[in-house]
Design brief:
2 domains; GMP Synthetase, Chain A, domain 3; 9 helices; alpha/beta
Amino acid sequence: MAYPTVVMDSAVKRKLRTIDPSWSTPQLLDALLLSLKGEGPALSTSDINAEVDPRVALVVTTSGSTGNPKSVLLSKQSLLASTRATHKYLNATSGQRWSLLLPTNHIAGLNVLIRSIELGTTPVTVDSPADYTAIVPTQLHRALNGDATLFDHLKSCTAVLVGGGPLDKELKHQATITGINVIATYGMTETCGGLIYDGQPLDGVQVEIRDGRIALKAPQIALGYIDGELLNQDGWFITNDLGQIVDGQVEVLGRVDDQIISGGEKISISAIESFLQNEFNSTEIIAFAKPDKEWGETLCIATTTDLELSLIQSRLKEKFGAHASPKQLFKISAIPYLGIGKPDRRKLANDHA
């Protein structure tokens, strides 16, 4: 898919090269190194016919899990700030190794490559020992529920970063008691990935809550989008995430666009989903919304497991109130996921319209 050629205003432009999915890891590492050093073109995860601001090293297109995909402009300075803040938090040293368990068309996978460059090593796969790795909650659940190879790999790592979506507290607890050192991360493509670890901002990161939203000021913040600017106030990047700060800990409460209004009542999709996954000990339960003439939007549940709608309704009513009772339950063969492991709620809504 080609994107518009609107770029940041600059007298000098930098060429943009699309990352070829057929590249080997060493080839991608070489291209990334040249991009970061300014000796090669900037790299893009999507086919974008444009030249960009000379500060741009990477253009990463988001998954579009909460709206239309956006192509984010990331500078060398922001990417290296992210890498170095992470390594400082982990006390990582040269020669240590990361494993690459995430796709490299997303910032999380690309970060593993940049961190490897910084440590002077080459990332390994799940079949080889590593000091650090990064995964999404779905992978952690699978490691704790039958994927022995992944479990052994995670357990052998000094630290396992888990991001890309909310990490259930019980799932993290289960991992911890089995010997996996899990660090819950919060961030997004616009922040070069995670910049808050286990509720604590990384070095150089400032956090405020503005009108209920998480606001960030940090060297990791992107330059903007290929076709526009970030939402900011006085130099602060205003996210779409609701949050609070309690005893110095940043708590993410959900997304602004995560809430639906059904019959005049607000319902948090992520809160419903997290509760059900914990209640029935399964990540194969997804909440989504469909347009409805009577209710405005209706809460729906999709699952690959054998569950009764009445049971789900009863549990949710008890926890959240009658307004959180789903109207429909869909038994499906598989949960559709986007590339980074996020559920594709839009596809579920379209498939069951």
